[in-house]
Amino acid sequence: VILKLISIDDTLHPDMLKLFEREVNTLKSLEHSDVPRFLDYFEIGLPKDQKALVLVQSYIDGVSVDKYLKQGRVFTESETRKIAKSVLKILIYLHDHSPPVIHRDIKPSNILLAPRTQSNEDKTAQICLVDFGSVQSIAPKRTHKTTILTLVGSESYMAPEQLGGRAMKASDLYSVGMTTLTLLTGLDPVDFPRENNAFDFSSLNHVTSGFTGWVEKMTAADLAHRFQSAQEALESLRI
């Protein structure tokens, strides 16, 4: 199992406690084979009359794609497509949840490649999405598609509107697109070549034009030019 502990003391910012409790409540409501499973949540005593809250979740025995990248590995187009498809399928589940769940922190270190546990002929790695500490649920009472929120997540992989304090389903898609760029190039998004404040995709000369166009649409700064749903992005990727 994985134990996630947060100490309750005078230094604890209220927003951190809210994020922790939100993660607990979100994991409680999720049932998906490719995300951690909620097991328990309790309070324990610490020395000097201190207390802590503990979240217990299932341990996924895998290696993050970030670790492979730091070892110098660059993923092929075929490998990257497979990872992107798997993450999008998870996002379809999360975004269709009631209320919809926005992950807000999709990046290489939160995507794990784990060996298959089933005894079947599929020897390919299971692709899992972890770390729901930045998650945001959109209340069903809202009539618009955006939510004002505290800035959380990793800025390098964060959509422009999320940097501005809003997150929506398309924000997760942008993060998947930026992660895809990193897998294909080995570069952190801040190091990716740009031209006139836009990404220069000409450096992806080892990638098919169709996949390059898909990545470009996933990472469009303008929401109107980006895929609007994980289902739409997945269907386009399958073409």
Describe this entry's structure for a reader.
This protein is 34% helix and 19% strand. The chain has seven helices and twelve strands. A hairpin with a 3-residue loop joins strand 2 and strand 3. Helix 3 packs antiparallel against helix 5, helix 3 packs antiparallel against helix 7 and helix 5 crosses helix 6.
Please outline the helices and strands.
Layout: E1 2-8, H1 14-29, E2 38-46, E3 50-57, E4 63-64, H2 65-70, H3 77-95, E5 101-102, E6 111-114, E7 126-129, E8 136-137, E9 147-148, H4 160-163, E10 166-167, H5 169-185, E11 194-195, E12 198-199, H6 209-218, H7 230-238
Antiparallel strand pairs: 1-3, 2-3, 4-6, 5-8, 6-7, 9-10, 11-12
Helix pairs in contact: 3-5, 3-7, 5-6
Helix content: 25-40%
Distance from N terminus to C terminus (CA atoms, Å) equals: 39 Å
**What is the assembly state of the chains in this entry?**
single chain
Radius of gyration, taken over Cα atoms and rounded to an integer in Å? 19 Å
**Major beta sheet summary:** 3 strands, antiparallel
Helices and strands, in N-to-C order?
EHEEEHHEEEEEHEHEEHH
| DSSP summary: helix tally | 7
Tally of DSSP β-strands: 12
Q: How does the helix and strand content classify structurally?
A: alpha+beta
| Average predicted confidence as pLDDT | 88
User: What strand order characterises the main sheet?
Assistant: 1-3-2
Low-confidence residue ranges: 139-151
Overall geometry? globular
| Beta-strand percentage range | 15-25%
